[in-house]
Amino acid sequence: MASTWLDFWQRENEFDESMSTNFNYFLERVEMHIPLSKNHRVLDIGSGPGNLEDAWHDRVAEMHGLDISKRYNEIARARHAGSPTVCFHDLDPDDYLNFGPVANRQFDVIIVMSVVQYYRNLSEVEQLLQAIKRVAAPDARALICDLMVGESFLSDVWGILKRSLLQGKLVATLKLLVRLRFSHYHTVRKENGFLIIPESEWLAMCERVGLKARFIDEPLTLQQERRNLLINF
């Protein structure tokens, strides 16, 4: 049965248990580029089960998560039922670049973590950049993370394995990769692939939208072959 990435994230999947490992690696490094303040308002695009909110909810003024997965949003809302400054909003799977739930707000920090590779085309990514620009406060920073910029899926996997070895998590990573190979994920990846955008095209899109952007030199996630784009407003 044909399926899309949108369908994949609506159901239980192999990343539910492993997602936090990559996120913890990211959290150890992100504040070198995004210093936090108690006055900051944070937008988390593709918030999943709320890992970023778990880490930052008591360190900033407010946080808003956006996700197409009602399942993830239900998990995240349950985790933060006692946090009045944390909100999770459902995005319409058929109109997921419409950020209507937060259209009248401005944010000091905007995080897009491991999301863009599941978009369908460059036009959608440019719409994302425009949407970020509309909700960014003066002097805001946006970080679009875990970007696939190369042509080889195998090199991406090899990068994950090398970093996992250095982190002492090689066995767990190998188990996850085997599970993915024989799961619904493998079928969806074969049918839909990933959106791969070269660095030069990212910078060109940012220039067209009127954004000041640069790639961060050091890796921020376990996927060492992937890149991270910092936008300053």
Secondary structure elements and their pairing?
Blueprint lengths: L4 H4 L6 H16 L10 E5 L5 H6 L5 E6 L2 H10 L6 E5 L16 E7 L8 H14 E12 L5 H14 L3 H12 L2 H9 L6 H11 L2 E4 L11 E6 L1
Parallel strand pairs: 1-2, 1-4, 2-3, 4-5
Antiparallel strand pairs: 5-7, 6-7
How would you sum up this structure in a few lines?
Keywords: Methyltransferase, S-adenosyl-L-methionine, Transferase. The chain has helices spanning 5-8, 15-30, 51-56, 70-79, 122-135, 153-166, 170-181, 184-192, 199-209, and strands spanning 41-45, 62-67, 86-90, 107-113, 136-147, 212-215, 227-232.
Radius of gyration: 17 Å
- Can you identify the CATH class? Alpha Beta
DSSP strand content: 15-25%
Q: Major beta sheet, specifics?
A: 7 strands, mixed
Distance between the termini: 44 Å
- Overall spatial form: globular
Describe this entry's structure for a reader.
Keywords: Methyltransferase, S-adenosyl-L-methionine, Transferase. One of its GO terms (molecular function) is methyltransferase activity. InterPro entries: Methyltransf_25, SAM-dependent_MTases_sf. This is Methyltransferase type 12. It holds the Pfam family Methyltransf_25. The chain is globular and about 40 Å long. β2, α4 and β3 form a beta-alpha-beta unit. The chain has a 7-stranded mixed β-sheet, sandwiched between helices. The chain has one domain: Vaccinia Virus protein VP39 (Rossmann fold, 3-Layer(aba) Sandwich), CATH 3.40.50. The chain has 233 residues and is α/β, with parallel strands linked by helices. The model has no long low-confidence stretch (mean pLDDT 84). It contains 9 helices and 7 strands.
